[in-house]
Design a protein that fits this description.
4 helices; 36% helix; 154 residues; globular; single chain; 7-stranded antiparallel sheet; 43% strand; 7 strands; alpha+beta
Length: 154
């Protein structure tokens, strides 16, 4: 199952790239929400960076592994994620529309690797409209945060 959205951001591509690769900020946000994160290959955003994440979801402890298989500064990167029989490939793509405007495209492709995961994915497909709307709202909020930070810094 695939989710994708695009948002235009009033900021240069280099600034947007720095924001979407600020994995330390993402880690701090997840820690505030109660996740347990261990970075395996420290050293900032780079190919091969890897994280193990533990978190509570629907009353159960979940574990997730995330790894960066590809980076193309300042145009984007990919993150491979696996958790409980599910695998997801997330892709962040940036396109400079002008010197001060950047298009952010964000795509997540989720695939089941086990029978249990297939059943979960099937139930997600029934709620795809609601999940897509929530996904788009979250990406829009993130894009607006980037614009606000850029306005305040410049």
């Amino acid at each position: 199952m695939k989710f994708s959205t695009k948002e235009d951001i009033e900021a240069p591509i280099a600034y947007v790239y720095a924001q979407v690769t600020d994995f330390d900020a993402f880690t701090r946000r997840a820690l505030r929400l109660g996740a347990d994160i261990k970075q395996i290959h420290a050293g900032g955003p780079a190919v091969g960076a890897e994280w193990h994440v533990g978190f509570q979801f629907r009353g159960r402890q979940r574990d997730m592994q995330a790894r960066i298989p590809q980076m193309d500064p300042p145009y984007g990167y990919q993150v491979d994620t696996t958790s409980g029989g599910m695998a997801a490939l997330s892709e962040v793509t940036l396109v400079a529309l002008s010197p001060r405007r950047t298009r952010l495209a964000f795509t997540i492709d989720v695939r089941a690797q086990t029978l249990t995961a297939r059943l979960l994915l099937q139930s997600m497909k029934l709620a795809k409209g609601k999940l897509t709307k929530r996904f788009k709202v979250r990406v829009l909020e993130f894009a607006e945060e980037i614009e606000d930070r850029h306005r305040k810094s410049g």
